[in-house]
């Protein structure tokens, strides 16, 4: 049975961020993820996790200067020092939060720029991270984002992402399989899951097209959850969706997975 993690950036927005840990635990979650921890001291976040008996399972490296169009730095040529500073910062937080996986954000590639220079920079920075994280048993994930959500992001297709993972060639680097983006770009999700078997170590879910609860829209998530069980996927499934309304009112789909 999948181990579902509440995404505290997208869910439980009825309450301030630090109160979402309690809300997630009360709703029956044992695991949480969120995009970035850096606005808070790691000790404060760890205290929340401990207070509510939660495990943090994923967060991202910094997105950089979002107001100026950045969405990750790790692929931007000549910004290696900034990217590696962000990777080091993520490692400190991962250790303090005892978080097993960090998503390294790549970058938006401006249309006039040379994509292969971005890919090469990304590969080198991810290798740097892989080697720093390895002694601590921390995994790295790389994620494709669909153009309707993040136009010109370096990684669009799951297969672009797999190609970079293979090029990086480190045993703690995996695909982050977000089925919402995968359906938008790649489709054929059951076959995709088979093809990526063993290559992904974090999953995220949301309905398509509206990115709501996984109980509507064009993806049959019950089928996908069974598929994940069938292939022996044992890592986490992040609920990275925008609730249609009240978060708890939308959790009917989750009832049968609580234990
Ligand atoms: O947008 C998504 O999907 C994510 O998982 C974010 O963490 C990164 O854009
Ligand atoms: Mg995602």
TrEMBL record:
GO terms of biological process kind: glyoxylate metabolic process
Keywords for the protein's UniProt record, in alphabetical order: Isomerase, Pyruvate
GO molecular function: hydroxypyruvate isomerase activity
InterPro entries xref list: HPT_OtnI_isomerases (IPR053398), HyI-like (IPR026040), Sugar_Epim/Isomerase (IPR050417), Xyl_isomerase-like_sf (IPR036237), Xyl_isomerase-like_TIM-brl (IPR013022)
Pfam families: AP_endonuc_2 (PF01261)
Catalytic residues identified in the record: 143, 240
Top-level division of the source organism's lineage: Bacteria
Domain Xylose isomerase-like TIM barrel stretches: 21-256
Keyword Nucleotide-binding belongs to the record: no
Recorded family membership: Belongs to the hyi family.
PANTHER family: HYDROXYPYRUVATE ISOMERASE-RELATED, ISOMERASE
Protein's name in the database: Hydroxypyruvate isomerase
